[in-house]
Amino acid sequence: MLANLNLAQKGLILVVIPLLFQLGFIYVLNGQLDQAEHERQQESNYKEKKQHLAKISRIIMSDAGGLAIYGLKRSGDSETQVRYKHISDAVPAEFDELEKLSENNPQELKDIAEVRRLAFQVVSDFRRIRKDIDSNNYLVAVKQFNTLRPQIAVLEHQLQVVNDLQDKLENAGAENWSSRRAEVKRVLVLATLVNILIATLLSFFFYRGTTRRLSILVDNSIRLASGVPLHPPLTGTDEIAKLDEVFNIMAHTLDEAARKERAVVENAVDVIFSIDDRGSMTKVSAASLQVFGYESDDLLGRNFRFLLPADEADSTNQKLTATKAGEASSQFEGRVLKRGGALIDVLWSVHWSSEEHLYFCVAHDITERKRAENLLREAEARIRLIVESMPIGLIIIDDTGRIELNNPSVDRMFDKKTDELQGKNIGLLFGKPDTVTDSEFALDLIQKTKNHAFELEAIKPTNETIPIEISMNEFETLEGKRHLVLVIDVTVRHEVERLKQEFISMVSHELRSPLNSVLGFLEMLPEGIYGDLNSQGKDKVSVAERNVNRLIRLINDLLEIDRTESGRLSMEIADVPIKPIIERSVDAVKTLADKEDITITVSDVNTIVTADGDRLVQVIVNLLSNAIKFSPRGGKIAVDVLTQEEWLEVRVVDEGRGIPEKYKALIFEKFQQVTSSDWRQKGGTGLGLAISKAIIDQLNGSIGVESEEGKGSTFWFRLPLKKTATAPSETKASVS
Fold first, then answer.
1. Which residues of 627-665 are buried (b: 16+ CB within 10 A; e: fewer)?
2. Torsion angle, CA of 582/588/592/598, rounded to 10 degrees?
3. Collapsing DSSP states into helix, strand and coil, what is residue 653?
4. 82: pLDDT confidence band, cut at 50, 70 and 90?
5. What are 399-429's pLDDT values in tens digits?
6. Quick check: 305 and 313 in contact, CB under 8 A?
7. Is 571-735 a CATH 3.30.565.10 domain?
8. Residue 409: helix, strand or coil by DSSP?
9. What secondary structure letter does DSSP report for 662?
10. Which residue ranges make up each domain of the chain?
């Protein structure tokens, strides 16, 4: 119960209980003192009343004596008369005082009233006797005086009774006063004993509730420092109990932290150890076996120089000393000699404790990191050599076009000195107009080179222009977004293009015309115009005719592919239905299909596309011819038309040998054949698929192939869809 009180409440108890007792004691003592004072006043009152009674008795007796003397002189002495008169007048005043002193005691007032009556009767008789004496009636006065004596005796007796009563009361008061003093002494002694008892109980209460509990807290702190288990938690809800609860939580937390620290030290991959002033290792973690090759017990007490190469022992010791003095960094690198003689690179982290006079060290094995750094430096050197040796110019710019880095090829290309371009804007190289800001020029250049290369003219310091091709790749850095600009001098390429155009022109005009003449001559020879040919001659002419036709097709394909690449391929774009185009294409290859006994089926679909119909016929004929060449005799070829959202897809499916995976990415390149024997056995120039791809690309479509070796091939192309005239049908027409 007491443990549930807080310290403020306990302190209040320590103050309030003694205070209440003292107040009660003062109250009782004050009552005793008041009673004693009352009894003392009563005793004084009794004495004063006795004095008044005695005085009344003296006055009466004086009156009686004075009257006797007055009568004996038988003369009216004025002085005696005056004194006698004064004594008689004092009697009422004395009775008034007696009544005032006894006003709280009705019995006394009654007795005093009786005495007063007797006294006033005696005084009245005295006055009659005095009148008789003044009238010279001495005999009457003597007779009355004699009769007055019994009354005086009664009065005296009554006064004595009252006086005896006052004596009795006075004695009783004195006894009461003595008893009251003894009572006060008993109260004082009892109060002292009770006060001692209360002080003892409160001291015990304070010791049990506060001092003893505080001593437990102090002892717990000593136990915590010594690693001894703590006392059981204190009960109660006061501040000490809460403090003990917090202390126990803190002790548990510290114990848990120490346990975790031990676990970290014991399981750390780094070696954690301490070194004293003499260089001896006082504590070593278990990681020493993994890092140094030694058990921790093998290193305890040994000088740390034992682990160092001879040429680094002194320098490492100097670094430790400098760390102790605060003159050097607490981290430094060094080497350690492992068991077996192998050297490892180690990063030392050192802290000097002036209280414990110990170096606390952590040794982190950085051998792999150093090896990686060396490899990285070598890789950087190789990359730097490659970048600097590349014939292609490399420039790194930010979003504003400011050049941050360029390789020597750029300097050579633009006749600049090393680092002359860094910090300048890229517009300096490409003739940026004065009306355009650097940022605007850079943004326009980035947009033009997005996803493809872009050609423009660069300006040398001599104002000479050179054609270049640039492309950009965006990448992120710690400083933000950057752009890698690839710059290629295409002067040689343009020259090659010029030579190619001249070659194409020469082929077109100088070779095609003579070949057509030769073809016409060969076609007339079998007809006997120039004489009859034997069978061997006819065979030779037939072979020559086929070779000339192949050469003419090659020249035509070369001219065609040149026009597509240069963008000079004429197109007549219109909304055309796909069905007639497919039918024209099938008719164009019908003779070749019949020769191989191949059946071609076509989807009955009449979707409209936006394209050049003749060019689409050229593409489909190329795909069908290719399928016929590689299909087995008596096989089937299907031409399917599918619509998918905004696209029309035409698929040519054959049952040929399929295309190996490695050739799929190259099949649409120029002069590509699956095998070298295809050209000899199947014929063809290797340009048909390349021309088809160029046509589809120019029509904003896409082309591709799906094939698995040994299971046929499916060539397809997609074009933007115009509208659907009739819904697709699964019915297929057979053409043979």
1. bbbbbeeebebbbbbebeeeebbbbbbbbbbbbeeebee
2. 20
3. strand
4. very low
5. 888 988 888 888 888 888 877 888 888 888 8
6. yes
7. yes
8. helix
9. G
10. 8-205, 268-372, 390-489, 494-562, 571-735
Strand partners, 734: 601
Residue 86 one-letter amino acid: H
Give the pairing type, strands 574-577 and 403-406: unpaired
Residue owning tokens 């309030």: 16
List pLDDT tens digits, range 109-160. Answer: 777 777 777 777 777 777 777 777 777 776 776 777 677 677 777 767 766 7
Structural tokens at position 99? 């009544």
pTM as predicted = 0.39
If phi > 0 it is left, if psi is from -120 to 50 it is alpha, else beta; for residue 270 that is: beta
The first and second tokens of residue 514, run together, are: 């003579």
Helix (H) / strand (E) containing 100: helix 78-101
- Tell me how far CA of residue 681 lies from CA of 208, 595, 653, 657, in angstroms: 115, 16, 22, 15
- State how beta strands 636-644 and 599-604 pair: parallel
Q: Which CATH class is domain 268-372?
A: alpha beta
Please tell me the total number of residues recorded for the chain in this structure.
736
Handedness of CA 131, 136, 138, 143 (dihedral sign): negative
Q: Which amino acid is at 433?
A: P
In order of 2, 14, 33, 197, 404, the CA distances from 18 in angstroms are 18, 7, 22, 11, 89
CATH, domain 390-489, list 3.30.110.70, 3.30.450.20, 2.60.40.3880, 3.30.470.20: 3.30.450.20
Q: What whole-number distance in Å separates Cα of residue 101 and Cα of residue 11?
A: 53
336 close to 307: Cβ distance less than 8 angstroms: yes
DSSP string, 573-640: -EEEEHHHHHHHHHHHTHHHHHHTT-EEEEEE--EEEEE-HHHHHHHHHHHHHHHHHHSPTT-EEEEE
Q: How far apart are CA 302 and CA 280, in angstroms?
A: 5
Q: Which CATH architecture has domain 494-562?
A: Orthogonal Bundle (1.10)
Cβ atoms of 378 and 386 within 8 Å: the answer is no
Q: Give the DSSP letter of residue 531.
A: -
As given in the structure block, the two tokens for residue 602 are 């076509």
Fold match, 390-489 / 571-735: no
Which amino acid is it at 593?
Answer: A
